[in-house]
């Protein structure tokens, strides 16, 4: 039973590695949780078996590119952890394919989550970034296996390096973060 005064929290991508741990942490602290997954009825592979027995968790079928499905899951929540990210379904043979399959849905999905949070009057949001925002930096590769500097908000992918190896533009996700931050400041929603 949820502790008095603790509002529900939505976790997008609740079926993923990070998302499922966030769900378990919230539940262990007596928060009711709305978890989004691609299809909660997907019993073919027991993909969500580890979630289905958790008391206090309600699973919602949601797609990042479908605003209405996100709003349905977020409605009634006081907080949101946006962990979900599109998964590459096949090997992308070009930068354009990767942008269409991963970057575009990531950007659109994050904006959909933020709009739904604003409409549902969510008080606090945590947005989990993509590893692409920090991982593409030749300095870390050159440092070798013993390099253990923590990556934080001062560490960003090197744009020239990203262009040289022809990967999708990580600034697309960074610019989305800037847009989201502006929306949240305007709507006065606390965001991390």
UniProtKB/TrEMBL annotation:
InterPro entries: Epimerase_deHydtase, NAD(P)-bd_dom_sf, NAD(P)_dehydrat-like
Keywords assigned by UniProt, alphabetized: NADP, Oxidoreductase
Stretches assigned to coiled coil: none
A single GO molecular function term of this UniProt record: oxidoreductase activity, acting on the CH-OH group of donors, NAD or NADP as acceptor
Domain NAD-dependent epimerase/dehydratase intervals: 9-133
Lineage top rank: taxon: Eukaryota
Pfam families found in the cross-reference section: Epimerase (PF01370)
Protein name: NAD-dependent epimerase/dehydratase domain-containing protein
